[in-house]
Amino acid sequence: MPDVDRDRAWLLTVDGAPQSYVDLDDPEHLEFEYVRRLAHVLDCAAEPGAAPDVLHLGGGALTLPRYVAAVRPGSRQTVVEFDAALVDLVTEHLPLAAGAEVTVHAADARAWLAAAPAASADVLVADVFGGSRVPARLTSVEYAREAARVLRPGGLYAANLADGAPFDFLKAQLANFAAAFGELALIAEPAVLRGRRFGNAVLLASDSPLPVAALARRCAGDAFPARVESGPGLARLMRGARTVPDAEAVASPEPPQGAFSLG
């Protein structure tokens, strides 16, 4: 069950694992590394001052929507979160700032995506975990094609995933999105990419060139630097991967004990 602990800010945990961190007084403070990488993606997704339409699959404590509302005022954001109890808890304890154009729906992400109008979002962020695993419904090539349908031309897809060597799951996800989009990139810590440990990886996809150079500069400057893989390096990682249809889709792998704990 979700729980919220108060210190100087709010830490939301699900079954004892950290799920979201929110500082209500400073929505631009992003505690978790993978969230900062997603924020870098959103920072580079549009010109300064632009206010994109963003669809978030998975909401948690709305850390990223709060960030977008603060740095790109006027952005219209839709959040789809399956856990209705979590939505109620966040609404009660962690209200959004006045003026934030964020609409939250308690619904199934795949079903919502299937019903969404074509070309209705500039950015689609997927951060959906059932416990500690990405549900199988969001790991197929049909899902990737639905994401492509909902994005406008030049739109950007970004997903938080988790895997470890030999990266069977991550390779399949890259193959799925290569079948639906023309451009791909992957952001992860070097130790994860080298197979030394299990960890988060942010998958990016678009039908237009991705801002790889700008993202690489931002990710390299973090306290826990990450690398942006694209082009030949990403092709090597994907070698031998094949797309996965709905009928064969599986959830992401179970993390090793303690992989995402607070320690």
Description of the structure:
- This protein has a single domain (30-248), classed as Vaccinia Virus protein VP39 (Rossmann fold), CATH 3.40.50.
- 30% of the residues lie in helices and 26% in strands.
- The chain is built from nine helices and eleven strands.
- The protein has helices at residues 33-44, 63-71, 84-93, 109-115, 141-150, 168-178, 190-193, 212-220, 231-238; strands at 2-6, 10-14, 17-22, 53-57, 76-81, 102-106, 121-126, 151-163, 183-188, 199-206, 227-229.
- A hairpin with a 3-residue loop joins strand 1 and strand 2 (10-14).
- The longest helix has 12 residues, at 33-44.
- The radius of gyration is 17 Å and the shape is globular.
Radius of gyration: 17 Å
The helix-strand sequence is EEEHEHEHEHEHEHEHEHEH
| Helix count, DSSP H or I runs of 4 or more residues | 9
Largest sheet: 8 strands, mixed
Q: At the third CATH level, what is the topology name?
A: Rossmann fold
- Which architecture would the CATH scheme give at its second level? 3-Layer(aba) Sandwich
Helicity level: 25-40%
Q: What topology, given as strand order, has the largest sheet? A: 6-5-4-7-8-10-9-11
The coarse silhouette is globular
Span from first to last CA?
A: 20 Å
In CATH terms, the superfamily is Vaccinia Virus protein VP39
Kindly state the mean pLDDT as a whole number?
92
Determine and state the CATH class: Alpha Beta
Number of strands: 11
Number of domains: 1
Q: What percentage of the residues does DSSP assign to strands (E)?
A: 25-35%
